[in-house]
Amino acid sequence: MYIEEITQSVEWSGDVKQAYRTLQVTLTNTLDGVKPIAEFQLGKDLRLFSDGIELFRGFIFRRQTDQSGSMTLVAYDENVYLTKNEDTKKFMKMAASQIIRKLCVEFGIAIGTIAETPYVIPKLILRDMTLWDMMTTALTVTRKHGGGRYFIYAADGKLHLAKRTDRKAAYIIESATNLLEASYSQSIEDMRNQVRIVGGDEEKKPIIAVASDQASIEGYGLMQHFETGDSDATQAEITKLAADRLAELNVIDDEAVVTAEGYDDTYAGVSVYVHDEMTQIVGSYYVSSDVHTWAAGMHKMVLTLSATDDLPELEYTPPAETTKKKTKTKKTEEDAE
To answer: In which domain, by residue range, is 50 found?
Structure first.
């Protein structure tokens, strides 16, 4: 059933660090103010199309209506079920892509295209976690071992895993044409300009690597990140890890929020070029979150932009495994008989 004739407004939103995208629809579900036009059941399908192209497919999780017949529907895409299921799992010698596929099969989540991740994780023990946190942890471990950056998304009612590449929006946002509002901030609060990593046997034969940026230290002061590397890592691997982590952490956080005319291809996870002289938002930025609204015949979007390509991360600390003590039983003469 198509409901655009009774729809008052639509809000479509997402965040790169959230498992799922959200669709909120406000509509007038009555013609006479006495009875509703249609029944919208919880758990049923709700889709959003723009110019014949499907932008969203999900399930109604919340509905609200008042005496006048005004109704609000809130739906989430398929990946919401990654946050609604928890478990404890132990994975041995599996790649993140294999872990994700296995969890989807076990919990009945439809699988789309799953990119193969190259790094095989020796052991991963995940306790009392949602499926989303399990998958995010596996992908974080993969990235930290040089296996590349991957992200999970939903499309056509299925879960997909893809390698992170620079997806660019087709349109430029600029103050002279389609930019409506803008604000900009910078911060060094999360910056780290020196990285120290200790691997190997920390007690007997530690492997240590330090990477630093002297110019950054002189400009902003020393801010060190410390990390423990794998016990079986080589000096070359620890050194590379320190250099990679420094490149990641030695950055000034830029955040810009812009309101502009809406474009369907501009959403969390893509990059967009923005040009505004007043706020000095000039250049290509990653969209970390977006809110698209359609109302009164207009399509607007509010974008939170970042200079860094942020992805959800969860650090993994191997839990201590409990071992059962073997108990010896003494054989008595009665037992022998």
So the answer is: 4-81
Calpha distance 36→33 (Å, rounded)? 8
286: which strand partners?
271, 306
**What is the gyration radius of the CA atoms in the chain, in angstroms?**
25
Q: The tokens of 325 are what?
A: 């003590």
Distance CA 169, CA 265 (A): 6
SS3 call for 28: strand
Same domain, 147 and 46: no
Residue 237, SS3 per DSSP: helix
User: CATH number for the domain including 27?
Assistant: 2.40.30
Q: What tokens does 118 get? A: 């190259």
Rounded to whole angstroms, how far apart are CA atoms 34 and 333?
A: 88
Token output for 234: 């080589």
| Gap between the Cα atoms of 150 and 309, Å rounded | 12
Q: Mean pLDDT by 10-residue block, N- to C-terminus, for the chain (337 residues)?
A: 91 96 96 88 96 96 94 97 97 97 97 95 95 96 88 93 83 94 93 94 88 97 93 89 92 90 93 92 92 96 86 70 52 45
Q: What is the CATH number of the domain that holds 156?
A: 3.55.50.10
Hey, what are 197's tokens? 């990593």
309 near 164, Cβ under 8 Å?
yes
Q: Is residue 317 part of a domain?
A: no
What pLDDT is attached to residue 324? Answer: 52
Total tally of structural domains belonging to the chain: 4
pLDDT for 333 = 44
Please check whether residue 327 lies inside any domain of the structure: no
144 with 209, same domain? no
- Strand residues in the chain grouped as ranges (E): 7-15, 22-28, 45-50, 53-65, 70-77, 86-95, 111-114, 120-130, 150-155, 158-163, 173-174, 179-187, 194-201, 205-212, 224-228, 253-261, 271-276, 281-295, 298-306
pTM for this prediction: 0.79
Place of tokens 């009945």: 108
Decide if 312 is inside a domain: no
Confirm whether 178 is domain-assigned.
yes
Q: By the 8 A CB rule, do 289 and 303 touch? A: yes
